Amino acid sequence: QVLLVESGGGLAQPGGSLRLSCVVSGNFSTYAMGWYRQAPGKQRRMVAGISVDGNPNYADSVKGRFTISRDNAKKTLYLQMNDLKSEDTAVYYCNRLLRPFASWGQGSQVTVSS
Questions:
Q1: What is the reported pLDDT for 50?
Q2: Closest residue by Cα to residue 81 from 13, 20, 4
Q3: Which is nearest to 86 in space by CA: 15, 4, 3?
Q4: In this model, does residue 53 exceed pLDDT 90?
Q5: What is the largest CA-CA distance in the chain?
Q6: CB burial readout 23-34, b (16+ within 10 A) else e
Q7: 54-112, pLDDT tens digit by residue?
Q8: Whole-number Å distance between alpha carbons of 99 and 21
Q9: Judging by DSSP bridges, how do beta strands 10-12 and 108-112 pair with one another?
Q10: Which residues pair with 67 in a beta bridge?
Q11: Terminal CA-CA length for the chain
């Protein structure tokens, strides 16, 4: 069973920054990975993905503001979030792309508010 442990969320002001981390057990270097978020009352959606080779892709809503990266040696996925907006408020999760692992982590709450 692959374990996913997210951290790094918190409260930020509009225009501020936060950096999320996700430690992944298993054969991390072979997984294409993604960051997902779920706002209250809404479905969970992918916001950023990264291939095994390190190629990123982003949802239009975060393009130019968020940066996804990975450190295979540390088995860790990152999401640098800049110029945060109130609509970025959500619980953020990491998981594999295309075929997410059945067991999601606890997520990391990000709240953007003045």
A1: 98
A2: 20
A3: 15
A4: yes
A5: 40
A6: bbeeebeebebb
A7: 999 999 999 999 999 999 999 999 999 999 999 999 999 999 998 999 999 999 999 99
A8: 20
A9: parallel
A10: 80
A11: 40
